[in-house]
Specification:
It is a single chain. This protein is mainly α. Helix content is 80%, strand content 0%. It has helices spanning 5-35, 42-67, 77-97. The longest helix is centred in the N-terminal third of the chain and has 31 residues, at 5-35. The radius of gyration is 16 Å and the shape is elongated. The protein starts with a helix and ends with a helix. The model has no long low-confidence stretch (mean pLDDT 86).
């Protein structure tokens, strides 16, 4: 049995920082959408908001898995694909709305 405490804490902090940065970007998009009168500018906000939720959920799941007494399983590829797809969808929505 090994101590996964520090690894779990570092991983949890990294996921939280990423989610916090994504939240800040989402708020900036929200501000821009409000200044432009909403319309189609709300699409990137919605996709970015979904991305933030997914990042928080994945980060919580991963940290919990690392804190367990057993050797953690690798991150489920479906989670990675979902997060990546939302990042790409946000970028595409930003380009398309301009």
């Amino acid at each position: 049995m090994s101590d996964h405490g520090a690894q779990a804490e570092r991983t949890g902090l990294a996921w939280r920082r990423t989610a916090l940065a994504a939240t800040a970007c989402t708020l900036l998009l929200l501000h821009t959408a409000a200044r432009q009168g909403w319309g189609t500018a709300v699409i990137p906000v919605a996709v970015a908001g979904a991305m933030v939720v997914v990042l928080v959920v994945i980060g919580s799941i991963r940290e919990r898995a690392l804190r367990g007494p057993d050797t953690p399983k690798p991150l489920n590829p479906a989670f990675a694909v979902t997060a990546s797809a939302l990042v790409v969808a946000t970028a595409v929505a930003l380009i398309a709305v301009r």
